[in-house]
Design brief:
Layout lengths: L1 H23 L7 E5 L14 H10 L3 E7 L6 H12 L4 E4 L4 H7 L4 E4 L3 E3 L4 E4 L2 H11 L3 E4 L5 E2 L16 H4 E2 L2 E2 L12 E4 L7 E4 L2 E3 L4 H4 L1
Parallel strand pairs: 1-2, 1-4, 2-3, 4-7, 5-8, 7-12
Antiparallel strand pairs: 5-6, 6-11, 9-10, 12-13
Length: 223
C-alpha cells in the first residue's frame, strides 16, 4: 500500500514538473500540442502515469490543445491503451500510425514529444519501447523538444551508456501474423526488438522525474 501511494505521488510530481517545464518553453504559455508513444499511464503504473501524467497535468491546467498517440506496433499499446485512457478522462487525443509520426510533428503543430523509459544509463541514454529512437531523431531534425518522463528509480548508474542495456528480441510472428492470420511470406527473416536506445544528446527537453527536470547527462549524478 505504501509503494502504491508513493508511485501515485511520484507520478503526479512528474506531471507537475513536466507540465511547468514544457509551458515555460512555449511562447505565450500554451496551450500545447504533444506527441507520445506506447502506454505510460494508469494502466502501466500504479496510477496517473509518467509521460501521460504530464499530459494529464497539462489538461487539468487547461493548457493542452491535443495529444497525438502513436499506435505503437506490433502490440498497439498506444491505440489500445493510451488512447482509451485519455478518452476516458476527456483528454483530446488523436491516434496516428507509427509511420506518420514525423509528418504529424511537421504538419500538425506538435510542440513537444514526451515518452517514458524502462531504463536510463549513467550518461543519460534511455531505453524505451521500440520506435522511440526514431521519434527523437525526427524531433531533433524539426527542432521540437524531446522529453523522457520517468521516476528516478529508472536511472541505473551501473551502466555507463545505453549500449550496455540488454534489448529483448520478440518472436517474429508478432510482425508476420495478426490475429492468427499470416500477413507475410512464412519463410521471411524477421528482426523484432522490443526496445531501442535513444542517445542522450537527442533528449533535448530533458528527463522529467519526481524531483524535477534534468539534463540527461546530469541525471544520475544529481540523484
Amino acid at each position: 500500500e505504501g509503494l502504491l501511494e508513493k508511485d501515485r505521488r511520484d507520478n503526479r510530481n512528474i506531471g507537475m514538473h513536466g507540465a511547468s517545464h514544457i509551458l515555460g518553453r512555449v511562447p505565450g504559455g500554451g496551450p500545447v500540442t504533444l506527441l507520445t508513444h506506447c502506454n505510460t499511464g494508469t494502466l502501466a503504473t500504479a496510477g496517473y502515469g509518467t509521460a501521460l501524467g504530464v499530459v494529464r497535468a497539462l489538461h487539468q491546467r487547461g493548457s493542452l490543445s491535443r495529444v497525438f498517440c502513436t499506435e505503437t506496433r506490433p502490440y498497439n499499446q498506444g491505440s489500445r491503451l493510451s488512447a482509451l485512457e485519455l478518452r476516458h478522462d476527456g483528454v483530446p487525443v488523436t491516434i496516428i500510425a507509427d509511420s506518420a509520426a514525423a509528418a504529424t510533428m511537421r504538419e500538425r503543430g506538435v510542440q513537444a514529444v514526451v515518452v517514458g523509459a524502462d531504463r536510463v544509463a549513467a550518461n543519460g541514454d534511455v531505453a524505451n519501447k521500440i520506435g522511440t529512437f526514431q521519434l527523437a531523431v525526427a524531433a531533433h531534425h524539426l527542432g521540437i523538444p524531446f522529453y523522457v518522463a520517468a521516476p528516478s528509480s529508472t536511472c541505473d548508474p551501473t551502466l555507463a551508456s545505453g549500449r550496455l542495456i540488454p534489448i529483448e528480441e520478440r518472436p517474429g510472428t508478432e510482425l508476420t501474423h495478426l490475429g492468427g492470420v499470416l500477413l507475410a511470406d512464412p519463410e521471411v527473416d524477421v528482426w523484432n526488438p522490443a526496445f531501442d536506445v535513444t542517445p542522450h544528446e537527442l533528449i533535448t527537453g530533458g528527463i522529467i522525474t519526481e524531483w524535477g527536470v534534468f539534463a540527461p547527462s546530469g541525471l544520475c549524478r544529481a540523484l
